[in-house]
Specification:
It is built from 1 helix and 34 strands. It is globular. A hairpin with a 7-residue loop joins strand 9 and strand 10. The N terminus is likely disordered. 3% of the residues lie in helices and 41% in strands. The protein has 2 domains: 308 residues, Tachylectin-2, Chain A (5 Propeller), CATH 2.115.10.20; 221 residues, Jelly Rolls, CATH 2.60.120.200. The strands form 8 sheets. Strands 20, 22, 23, 25, 30, 31, 32 and 34 form an 8-stranded antiparallel β-sheet that branches. It has a 6-stranded antiparallel β-sheet with strand order 24-33-26-27-28-29, with no helix packed on it. It has a 4-stranded antiparallel β-sheet with strand order 1-2-4-5, with no helix packed on it. By secondary structure, the protein is mostly beta strands. The structure holds 2-acetamido-2-deoxy-beta-D-glucopyranose (NAG) (9 copies). One 2-acetamido-2-deoxy-beta-D-glucopyranose binds next to strand 11. Belongs to the glycosyl hydrolase 43 family. One of its GO terms (molecular function) is hydrolase activity, hydrolyzing O-glycosyl compounds. InterPro entries: ConA-like_dom_sf, GH43_C2, Glyco_hydro_43, Glyco_hydro_beta-prop_sf, Glycosyl_Hydrlase_43. This is Glycoside hydrolase family 43 protein.
């Protein structure tokens, strides 16, 4: 037995050794824009087709981050009707000027060049990060834009804008074309400008979002240039080391922050590559930064290794404590999202309202999440009755216990859980009317690049009994799907390699990572008026040690 004092000693030793551990915000959270105000740090990240948009995380120690608010919390702020995977809200910039937070971001509705629907850039401000308006101070808008609409060579452009009308009122100028050969695949993006010690700095991302992604920087004595690139560009680029076997890949899209003590850090996006693919998408990582001759060096100029931690603040809670949601109040936990715009209320939480009470015998007084399913499913570019949480760990279990229901589901009605990446890539398990036979079945449907494989097991009941739990075990690099009834052993129904949740289908982008969804759907038909009320009474997430190596070498 270890004496008490020794284990305390070991704990405090660990606190010092493992300070800030990457990723600092796990689960897909690309394009981090970091900011310090007093003793608080904030990070805003991209949200794509998820609603509400632009999560803002808060920390007081750079190691432990909590979801604080969302900048785009109403449909008017996040117009996402019909957007495909990868489109939607991109690359926020968060700043704080004279007591107000400012957020600039953009929405992309489609990337189909035939449609010729172009992105819109917008900005908003807030006193408290909770209520957002459109009140501004003097501002230059720097953006990634094409040189013209004929040859469409992207670069970093700038315009002074009217804060009243939002119009460009100054000269529209090309600021910088980055460090790569300047052709239409160069993709300089995500410009962030800041002022330090008599220089303006222009920090950008380049190289596309895949393995060649990187951060580069230039400086000038004027916000309009001319710009001098840093002698040590790219300042962040794991690919520069020739090691495509590193687990941390696609390092880039950085923003800088200074602590009250004068230490500097860079927050950036990176993928954790797991046996070749990244089911969690781009997460938020942090590294150290030093200045010399007015130029920044990140992580002492070395590659970012997953195992390296740094700083001298309290350790992260790792693995994080379990998450449990019993949907006991009428507000959903803010870590749940819907897809696109929830223009109708398609769920309720807490105790059921009276209008639903004549259905679900046996669940009429139970708190929980009750869906009002519509015709849409997770395969549609619309808003199915579904709520989603980002997958936070490469070694975790997501499980959801159904509310009992008094009646049967027909062939087209389903309720279940999903490991979701896009409308093309979601792996589902749940209960539905059986395929090719009568009655209800447990089912799993796996989607692989346009093919679909369904397994089913008869439920042998004309109602959905109490205490059925649906389970997804995510342990890199695979997902396994099962169910249990009460306390009986888990019945595993299907398994799929996580690479099927980590690629862009032809003609589409996927910048998100995996989420776990709860859903109910009429799968193309309205939910019948005599079909039972369905929902969930509890969700549990349990996280384990990930033990992901520094090199993406799996056997
Ligand atoms: C960037 O490239 C565009 C298109 O080739 C060119 O018109 C522009 O002058 C360049 N900008 C700078 C700052 O070099
Ligand atoms: C852009 O330049 C790079 C590097 O020279 C080259 O590999 C790539 O093919 C070029 N792309 C286009 C569209 O010309
Ligand atoms: C990773 O790749 C580098 C460069 O090819 C090689 O030197 C190194 O041995 C590799 N490391 C592992 C763990 O495979
Ligand atoms: C890694 O991927 C390869 C195929 O690319 C596969 O054969 C192998 O089984 C995978 N390894 C693990 C541990 O899943
Ligand atoms: C349903 O029947 C069709 C036609 O026989 C068959 O191809 C399919 O696999 C069956 N589906 C299930 C889930 O049994
Ligand atoms: C998906 O199918 C398309 C078309 O057949 C093919 O080009 C692509 O390589 C496939 N992708 C994967 C990941 O299998
Ligand atoms: C329902 O009964 C069939 C036939 O006995 C059996 O194979 C199946 O496992 C049963 N389903 C469940 C959920 O136990
Ligand atoms: C379901 O589980 C809860 C909690 O364990 C228990 O109180 C309840 O009696 C169970 N219901 C049934 C029908 O077994
Ligand atoms: C995942 O967690 C389980 C349960 O703690 C553990 O047995 C397993 O080794 C972990 N897997 C990895 C890759 O660390």
């Amino acid at each position: 037995m270890v004496p008490f004092s020794v284990s305390v000693f070991l704990c405090s030793l660990l606190l010092i050794v493992d300070a800030i551990k990457n990723p600092i915000v796990s689960g897909w959270n690309p394009d981090p824009s970091i900011l310090r105000v007093g003793n608080e740090y904030f990070i805003a990240t991209s949200s794509f087709e998820y609603f509400p948009g632009v999560p803002i995380y808060r920390s007081t120690d750079l190691a432990n981050w909590e979801l604080y608010s969302h900048a785009l919390a109403t449909p008017e702020h996040a117009q996402l009707y019909g957007v495909p995977t990868g489109a939607g809200v991109w690359a926020p910039s968060l700043s704080f000027i004279n007591g107000r937070f400012y957020l600039a971001s953009m929405t992309r509705w489609t990337y189909d060049p035939t449609a010729r629907v172009w992105p819109r850039v917008y900005f908003s401000s807030s006193k408290d990060l909770i209520t957002w308006s459109t009140q501004f101070g003097k501002i230059y808008l720097n953006l990634m834009a094409p040189n013209n609409n004929i040859d469409r060579i992207w670069g970093i452009y700038q315009c002074e804008i009217s804060l009243v009308t939002g119009n460009c009122i100054g000269e529209y100028i090309s600021l910088w074309n980055g460090t790569l050969p300047h052709n239409s695949s160069a993709r300089d993006e995500g410009p962030k400008m800041f002022y330090k010690d008599s220089y303006y700095y222009l920090l950008i991302a380049e190289g596309g979002t895949d393995d060649l992604h990187r951060a580069t920087i230039a400086r000038s004595s004027s916000p309009q240039g001319p710009w001098t690139p840093a002698p040590n560009n790219p300042i962040l680029f794991n690919g520069a080391y020739g090691f495509d076997n590193l687990t941390v890949q696609s390092t880039g899209h950085a923003t800088f922050v200074e602590t009250p003590e004068g230490d500097w850090y860079a927050a950036f996006l990176a993928r954790r590559k797991i046996n070749g693919t990244s089911p969690l998408g781009a997460e938020t990582l942090l590294t150290t930064l030093t200045w010399s001759d007015g130029w920044p060096t990140l992580n002492d100029g070395k590659p970012i290794l997953l195992s390296e931690s740094f700083g001298s603040v309290p350790d992260q809670h790792y693995p994080p404590p379990p998450f449990k949601d019993t949907f006991s109040t009428s507000e959903l936990d803010p870590s749940w999202y819907q897809l696109r715009i929830p223009y109708t209320q398609n769920y309720e939480t807490g105790k059921p309202r009276s209008s639903n009470r004549h259905h679900g015998k046996g669940n009429s007084e139970t708190s929980g999440l009750r869906f009002s399913p519509n015709v849409f499913s997770l395969s549609d570019r619309d808003t199915p009755a579904a709520i989603l949480r980002k997958q936070k760990s490469l070694n975790m279990t997501f499980s959801a216990t159904l509310l009992p229901a008094s009646g049967s589901l027909g062939y087209l009605q389903s309720i279940g859980i999903s490991a979701y990446l896009s409308e093309f890539q979601h792996q589902d398990t749940g209960i539905r009317g059986c395929v090719n036979q009568t009655g209800m079945c447990f089912y799993s449907t796996l989607l692989m690049n346009g093919t679909s494989v369904t397994n089913q097991i008869p439920l042998n009941s004309t109602t959905i009994p109490d205490n059925i739990t649906l389970i997804i075990r995510a342990e890199a690099p695979k997902y396994t799907f099962g169910f249990k009834i009460g306390t009986t052993p888990i019945v595993w129904m299907a398994e799929i390699e996580s690479s099927w949740l980590a690629f862009a289908p032809i003609g589409f982008f996927v910048f998100e990572g995996a989420s776990f969804a709860l859903f109910a759907s009429g799968n193309g038909n309205p939910w019948p008026s005599d079909a039972p009320v369905v929902g969930f009474k509890e969700v549990n997430e349990v996280y384990f040690d990930e033990n992901i190596p520094d090199h993406d070498v799996w056997t």
